[in-house]
Amino acid sequence: MIAVRSVPSGRFSSYRSLAFALALGFAGATLSAVPAHAAGATYSKPFTAVAAPIQGELDKVKKAPDAAAVAALKTKVEAAIAAATTPDDKMAAGNYGIQVGGLAQDNALQRQGVLLMIESGKSAPDMLPRLHFYAGNFAYEMKDYDAARKEIDTAIASGFNDPDAFIIMAQVLQAQKQDKESTVYLKKAIDAMTAQGKVAPESWYRSALAAAYGANDYAGAQPLSIALVKAYPTTKSWSMAIVVQRDLAKLPSQDTLDLLRLMARTKSWTEERDYGEFVQAADTRRNPGEVKAVIDAGVAAGQVDASKQFYAENLKLANARIAMDKATLPGLDKDARLPTAKAATLAGAGDAFLSYGEGAKAAELYKLALDKPGVDKPVVLTRLGIALIDSGDYAGAKAAFLQVEGVRKGMAELWATYADQKAAGK
Known about the structure:
Distance between the termini: 27 Å
Structural class: mainly alpha
Mean pLDDT: 89
Low-confidence stretches: 1-37
Order of helices and strands: HHHHHHHHHHHHHHHHHHHHHHHH
Number of helices: 24
Radius of gyration: 31 Å
Oligomer: single chain
């Protein structure tokens, strides 16, 4: 099972320094000479009395950081915030709250500073969405999730479409145990990053997929699984995407076999369960060659103990049947070529050749089956695509997969992605 994981919190550790840099960029915020500094600014006398010395002391602390000096300065800033009454008071006090809060690594003070700057009404309109974003970030850091959600919502509604806003909202929703809703914002973050011409971090894809999986949301998880393997085509990604199909799509046994055939080709086995389910779905009496190949692969990977009764019995049966099974292939091919051959006969012959890696022969038979009445198109098209991949016709394989409808559609789209990657030499 895929564990539900939150987006790594370390991804956001830089926001405090960003907020500090933001504060430095505001004009009219320093009070070293309050009356003359900002033309038209209106500072109250009580605020001026406590705030006037702050800028000079702040400049000294920046040049020579000292814990005791920062603590003393923090006390003065808190007094200035308490004395702030006019809009200009609040704008200046808020700026100091952000700067000194950054030096003191005090999220609460920085958050208070951002909120004061919003409340002042003095911030430029194009800066307000970003201020709400910072307010939401600080609220999230302080685990005030309702406030964080409100501020980030405001930022996004105001046009702040930075991927980080969607990421923080996703984290807030995960913290509130709303995994399905968090998936929506994780996907928005990925889309926003993609729109910038960048590849989103792998952790975003994995977290989104894990959240959708945890919410049993196949409709949300399936496209994310495709996106993950496209962006990061590793065996780990393929395993995660295939597990989503296996666990959430509720595929019948024969459908599961074709999904696990993708796991075999991507070599994305992760646990003994994968091999065991392949053996069960393949059925040693029908596909002894594939069963033996998969058990041997599991043993070689150190994930399967061939001495266990289940594997030992299936391996013994497979070894006993392979030669005899292969000997029937010419007869199956001959019967399939008869004018009276039905779709099931052609598809069955194709299945036999596919199981022994004879993709070109299997593809030929599947194509003939598609022209017969009563053909199970989703199954035959899927296996035609697999056969074409095995024979090196990746474009033809993708075309076959994209025609699949019904319960197999999601799996076929995953196969089509694999065909694209094979065509690209990946």
